[in-house]
Amino acid sequence: MDFKDTPEEAAFRAEARAWLEANAELADPNDPGDDVLGERTDPATIAAAKAWQKKKADGGWACITWPEEYGGRGATSIQNVIWGQEESKFKTPPNIFGIGIGMCGPTVLTHGDDRQKKQWIPKLLSGEELWCQLFSEPSAGSDLAGLRTTAVKDGDDWVVNGQKIWTTGAQFCDWGILVVRTDATAAKHAGLSYFVVDMHSPGVEVRPITQINHGQGFNEVFFSDVRIPDANRLSEVGNGWAVAITTLMNERASIGGGGTGDVIGDLIELAENVDHGGRPAIEDASVRERIADFYTRSRGVQYTGYRTLTALSKGTTPGPESSLGKLVGAALAQEMAAFGIELGGVAGATHGDISTPGASAFHDMYLAIPGLRIAGGTDEVLRNIISERVLGLPPESRADKGIAFKDIPTGPAS
Amino acid sequence: MNFDFSEDQKLLQQTARNFLAEHSPLSVCREVLESDQPYSQALFKAAAEMGFQGTVIPEEYGGAGFGYLELAVVAEELGRALAPIPFASSTYLATEAILLAGSDEQKSQYLPGLASGEAIGTFALVEKPGQNGTEGVETKLSGGKLTGTKLPVLDGDVADFAVIAAQSDSGLSLAIVDLDQAGVTRTSVGSFDPSRSMARIEFKGAAASVLGKEGDGAALADRVLDRAAVLVAFEQLGGAERAFEITKDFMNGRYAFGRPISSFQALKHRLADLWCEIQLTRSNCYYGAWALSNDTPELGIAACISRIAACKAYDLAGVEMIQLHGGVGYTWEYDCHMFYRRAKLLSVMLGSPASWKDKLVTRLREQKAA
After folding, report:
1. Beta-carbon separation of A394 and B269 below 8 A
2. Could you report the predicted ipTM of this complex, rounded to two decimals?
3. Residues of chain A with CATH 1.20.140.10
4. Which CATH architecture has domain B7-116?
5. Predicted TM-score (pTM) of this structure
6. Of B69, B269, B283, which is closest to A304 when you measure between CB atoms?
7. Over the stretch B246-292, which tens digit does the pLDDT of each residue have?
């Protein structure tokens, strides 16, 4: 039992490190870094991110797990983690390619034909074209297969009408992966098809959504008679759900790192500097108990990540058990942020000048975390995944099985 | 990254699991629970024949000379089996204290018996309600004679000797005292988990020999507790996982409203949450085992998080086991209460979870200042 690389891993790490040292500057480890929901949408940031991705592609360090014939290097999953660990130590622009590289690319590589892969993969890999994911709808979130956006065949094209929502980065993307209903008389999951849509097509309208923290990471995307060539369809008509599952399987909880920075260290420092009844809050037993619980839990998440890395290192693919990291980690982060605010007493509610030092950061965190508990699978969906796919428990009874989609009961708002 | 047990260690784990399936089915725990016997002598003897008690004791003293990763996997299996034997007192506490601080003579005198299972040792710090460690010790050690009372002492009714904390002229010290001598009075006290026994021990001029440096007792006791905390955490982990498995199987077989109760989200989500707690505990325990087996400076913090997580997970597993079984979970006949009881006993036996949380924050601040 140890935390060391195997000799092969160490050699790979050295190679990655050498390229990074030649092409980027080391980062300050105390820099808080990227925001959690990808809210950096200004043109300068996007241009910098694209330039860095292009540099990596030219050096052979973009999308390293992808096949060599499409610009990757056929690397293993553990090598990908090692690359990520090393890259994170350098000063690089925010990663705006998470959805394209993490979800869209692997789906095209799995289900696309040769022509489609050649058309899309190289520019996706090099960062020249940005991709987004058009799955959720106002009435189809956790129940994604209940989506209602339609596509109707017209000659060699499909004509799409409807609305998507929670689309990260749609306002600056070139392509989107899109699941639509092509047959409302088929059963729910059987009537779906999967397309790649040009986001610059006439009839595509993107409207940013303002979040509770003023961020605008998400958008609504409206489709009004948008034409998509049949050549942009992935897999057969009616097989969209299987393709969507491939995408979702790649939407894996991030693994390996602590993820929350040194929030515990910040909490201890704050508790040492605020006064509770004539003595530092850190001497208060109830404060100590909370901090100890947070620390124990966050180390538990971190070391569970180490166990996942160990499985990767042995060549195993991590499965649904990696849902634990987001389920536990997001709720923990929210509790820590709330506690950071409460440590300030009444002044904990003030933002800025008279607030306790460091408390404003907890405000930002407390406003960001609710999004994390919903995005990429709500806490409740993750508990379903763990109980059904990890523990093998039987599914809930459902009211939408074995009937045509158009006959499934809906609420008055739909 | 290789944050896992080795193939050999997993083989040892399987051997221990097979052995305990034969020698320690839950009926063995129940027999002790329902009888006057303080522990299962047959199981303790059989475990010693397997070499469990002597896992980390060097070969020159009759042990197997393995490391702590091997002892950790044995501990996890003993926890799964609810083994009703004085293993923690004798192996994680008394043996560790002697290995850490014993003179050659003390090692020669005590370790062979501990390894073979012919002797049982225990560890006695607290003296009255509210205490969790070495604070408030009043027992006196003067001129090699002990005076005072220890209460409660886990396995104090069956142990042959105890490592105890006492005040000497040089301050708090540890000492070894044989319990079968004039000047020692032992009285059994009731136990929340009657499959594990406890006693009050009164010393009136009993002969004792100092263990380690006189006056070093508090620091030494802390080191022993840290080591034991990791090993007990593995027992807790094993117990929690077994409770979880039994509960899951019950829920898959129990039907209500025409379907297995494990299909209801209100119930399956509780199992998912319990599974998460157990996974977090396993991960923290692995870190504890790594720190213990390498004797790294991180052990102080690693012991705290192993113990804090394990107390929480096992307590939760016991609580959920009864609740998710419904009415039958509350019957004497079902085994749920044996896990519920053991979980609570283990959560206080090395000091309450709150006392370990306090210790953790102290250590985090020391680390930050360093």
Report:
1. no
2. 0.97
3. 263-390
4. Orthogonal Bundle (1.10)
5. 0.94
6. B283
7. 999 999 999 999 999 999 999 999 999 999 999 999 999 999 999 99
